[in-house]
Design goal:
The complex is a heterodimer of chains A (359) and B (368).
Chain A: H1 6-16, H2 34-54, H3 61-86, H4 94-109, H5 116-140, H6 145-164, H7 174-181, H8 190-207, H9 209-219, H10 221-226, H11 231-257, H12 268-278, H13 290-308, H14 314-336, H15 343-358
Helix pairs in contact in A: 2-13, 2-14, 3-11, 3-12, 3-13, 4-5, 4-6, 4-11, 5-6, 5-11, 7-11, 8-9, 9-15, 12-13, 13-14
Chain B: H1 2-23, E1 41-47, H2 53-67, E2 75-82, H3 87-99, E3 104-107, H4 116-124, E4 128-132, E5 142-145, H5 148-162, E6 168-173, H6 179-195, E7 198-204, H7 209-222, E8 228-231, H8 237-245, E9 252-255, H9 258-265, H10 267-271, E10 276-279, H11 285-297, E11 305-307, E12 312-314, H12 326-330, H13 360-364
Parallel strand pairs in B: 1-2, 1-3, 3-4, 4-5, 5-11, 6-7, 6-8, 8-9, 9-10
Antiparallel strand pairs in B: 10-12
Chain lengths: 359, 368
């Protein structure tokens, strides 16, 4: 982690000098990701304008709905991935937590709405326990996140295969499909739920003690520990969050697909990381926000659909997708540079708030 | 203190792992015997990937075939091994089988070329080497398979007829870059071109409902002029995508999933205009390979590629089974009640030639 850079400090002071107080926390408090988050949403708006002009069919409400719904699964998986990446880790067990939770969900639900609560609880608890196992392995045993989450992933893959023997019984209740798809073109409830989630996450991140401690740990685990934060508990908690969001994403996916099956989470290994990167997060930790991840997920989903209308061969389409992600990330980086913040600011403001709390 | 904490955390982690393990306790043990040692051939089944309904059914059919007549008296044991998706693992697994001197080895090959050397070793050791569904290029192996291009052609022709040889079709393909996908898709595209139907776009559905449904949702968002869907997998997710988008069904071809066949006969779906047909890679190929391996051991000669056909069922030929008893299956029923089978169950598992004495309950209750 970098230490105080006087130049950066000065720049910031200049930038904020119009405000009388040195208040640097905006309403959303995007931290160092502000530039990148803004950039991804600007790119999204530009893409929408492009669609309006060149592919007006895609701009109609039902098409936009489809794009958002498909992005929702990635965004929810990306929420957990983003939290883990914010602490400098990575969660590679997301795909198999998704698959195993969805399989358990389907086999308990047996396609009955009446079993929804029990099945949902079981799936979420499984996700939570697996996430906790990841977190404990990383923090208490010092296992590298890549190794720990890969190991959990492998255990799950084998466990799911052994338990089901490849034959998944049961199916998700119709209400989950309704939640994800709406009925006969009606508005799917997943969209307002996603908005609510974004508000909730932003609130927790900006306003709660947990959010601030998380920011401190992400920016500098050592300094935050010295300042009195239980950084290991915080890091464990982000893996637990990732486990829960992966379970939810798995359930959402089973609603979309109409069934659960082994390996259903596989595509989300890369996409959950990609949308976090698109959202401007730093893989060293300490920078990123769910609004960026959400924007990244929407951008990726819209992009795939737009590319579809150009009728490119699969190979070219994959290349185009990769290139656009790369360009978007680079553009976000360029956008970030002028407003580059140094990590110590966050720690200081955190310390201030903590001192206030103590006083 | 520190030590104590470590121990507590260690115990916590260990108990989590044990919980996970016990939750999935019925894991498939390697090398389970299907029958007590008796007079008869010892046969090994080398599966690669086993994580879907199709593979599970194919395996159970092999075991069920070995436990029913006409093979029951001729086979002492079928030992099943699963190597996963790693070609090297399957190679060393087959090497061990050769070392154990099985009479025949039935293989679902993970790669068309990587296993060639070890298969040659098996042939040289006098072991009958049979593959099913996927094939290998080693000439001494016997590949039990079906004509993928023919499958693409027949289904595309049926769809073109349903579409009156006009309009636009979208294709939901399998895993891009595989020979099976290539053969089916190329053949289908050729038919559409010949019939004057425009292919709007193709999308890789990866032979799973999730990606196939996503493909269809995106197609519906992107195009408002779709007149037909030719898919390799997606019978469950494709109609769902139409429902979600509030769009009218168009004729669709999809896989032999039982769920899809149920819908093609469901009055509720028929009222909404669901028309189509169902086809797929038959799961009885493994049982056929087993049966031929026994015949080969008895002295019959087999070519290197054996085409055993596939089941193509247009909507009109669908027929519900009540329980899946053999008499019913012989009478041509080809769809099973939803409460008897898993949601991803493939309905085209029965063959009068290769699985004559296997009823649905035999298949579902087969012992490893």
């Amino acid at each position: 982690m970098t230490t105080t850079a006087p130049v950066g400090e000065k720049n910031l002071r200049d930038k904020t000098s119009r405000l009388h107080k040195p208040q640097r926390r905006g309403l959303l408090d995007l931290g160092g990701a502000r530039g990148a988050v803004t950039a991804v949403w600007i790119v999204l708006v530009l893409l929408y304008i492009f669609i309006l002009i060149f592919r007006p069919g895609l701009a109609q409400l039902s098409s936009v709905q489809t794009i958002v719904v498909l992005a929702a699964v990635t965004a929810v998986a990306g929420l957990g991935q983003g939290a883990v990446i914010f602490t400098g880790g990575i969660d590679l067990s997301i795909p198999w937590i998704m698959s195993s939770s969805a399989i358990v969900f389907a086999s308990i639900a047996q396609g009955e709405d009446g079993n929804l609560i029990v099945a949902l609880l079981a799936a979420v608890v499984i996700g939570l326990l697996l996430g906790l196992a990841n977190g404990v392995g990383v923090t208490r045993f010092g296992i590298h996140p890549v190794v720990m989450t890969l190991a959990v992933s492998a255990i799950l893959e084998g466990g799911a295969l052994g338990w089901t023997g490849g034959l998944v019984t049961g199916s998700p209740p119709p209400i989950v499909a309704l939640f994800m798809r709406g009925d006969a073109g009606s508005f799917p409830m997943v969209i307002p739920a996603l908005l609510l989630l974004a508000v909730l996450v932003s609130f927790v991140y900006r306003q709660t003690r947990y959010g601030r401690e998380l920011q401190a740990v992400g920016l500098n685990p050592t300094a935050s520990r010295l300042a009195g934060v239980h950084s290991k508990t915080i890091i464990t908690s982000v893996y637990a969050i990732s486990g829960v969001t992966a379970a939810l994403a798995g359930i959402m996916l089973s609603g979309l697909a109409g069934q659960s099956y082994l390996g259903m989470g596989d595509p989300y290994l890369l996409t959950s990381v990609a949308v976090v990167a698109l959202g401007g997060a730093s893989f060293a930790g300490g920078r990123g926000h769910f609004l960026g991840t959400l924007g990244g997920a929407l951008l990726l989903s819209a992009l795939i659909t737009v590319l579809m209308t150009f009728q490119l061969p699969e190979a070219i389409r994959t290349i185009a997708q990769g290139s656009v992600i790369l360009i978007a990330v680079i553009a976000a980086k360029v956008g970030v540079r002028p407003g580059k913040r140094k990590n110590s600011d966050g720690i200081k403001s955190f310390r201030r708030s903590r001192e206030k709390a103590i006083l | 203190m520190k030590q104590k904490q470590r121990i507590i955390w260690g115990l916590a982690l260990a108990s989590t792992v044990m919980l996970t393990a016990s939750a999935c306790s019925s894991s498939t043990a390697d090398g389970t015997s299907s029958a007590d040692a008796a007079d008869g051939y010892e046969i090994a089944l080398s599966m690669s990937y086993s994580g879907n309904d199709w593979q599970g059914e194919a395996k159970n059919l092999v075991l069920a075939a070995a436990q029913t007549q006409p093979l029951k008296d001729k086979i002492a044991a079928v030992d099943t091994f699963v190597s996963g998706t790693d070609a090297q693992a399957q190679i060393s697994q087959i090497q061990q089988m050769i070392a154990k001197a099985y009479d025949a080895i039935v293989i679902y090959p993970i790669s068309p070329t990587a296993l060639n050397n070890v298969i040659k070793q098996g042939c040289d050791a006098g072991i009958q080497m049979f593959t099913y569904d996927a094939s290998v290029t080693e000439p001494c192996a016997h590949n039990v398979t079906f004509d993928q291009a023919e499958a693409g052609k027949v289904t595309a022709e049926y769809l073109a007829d349903l579409m009156n040889n006009t309009g636009n079709v979208v294709l939901i393909t399998g895993v891009a870059g595989t020979s099976v996908d290539e053969a089916r898709t190329t053949a289908a595209e050729a038919v559409f071109k010949e019939r004057g139907i425009e292919v709007l776009d193709t999308c890789a559905g990866d032979w799973a409902q999730g990606p196939a449904g996503e493909c269809m949702s995106r197609f519906l968002a992107a195009f408002d002029n779709i007149d037909g869907v030719w898919a390799q997998v997606g019978g469950v997710a494709i109609p769902d995508a139409f429902d979600a988008a509030g769009r009218e069904y168009v004729p669709m071809i999809a896989e032999s999933a039982n769920e899809y066949r149920l819908r093609l006969q469901d009055p509720e779906y028929l009222a909404k205009g669901l028309v189509g047909g169902s086809y797929g890679a038959p799961p009885f190929q493994g049982a056929a390979a087993l049966s031929m391996a026994v015949q080969a051991l008895e002295g019959e000669e087999f070519p290197s590629t054996i085409d055993i056909g596939f089941e193509w069922v247009p909507q009109a030929d669908l027929k519900m089974c009540a329980t899946g008893a053999i008499e019913e299956l012989e009478a041509g029923c080809n769809t099973f009640p939803a409460d008897l089978v898993s949601t991803g169950f493939m309905a085209d598992w029965w063959s009068p030639e290769w699985t004559p004495n296997i009823s649905l309950s035999t298949l579902l209750n087969v012992e490893e």
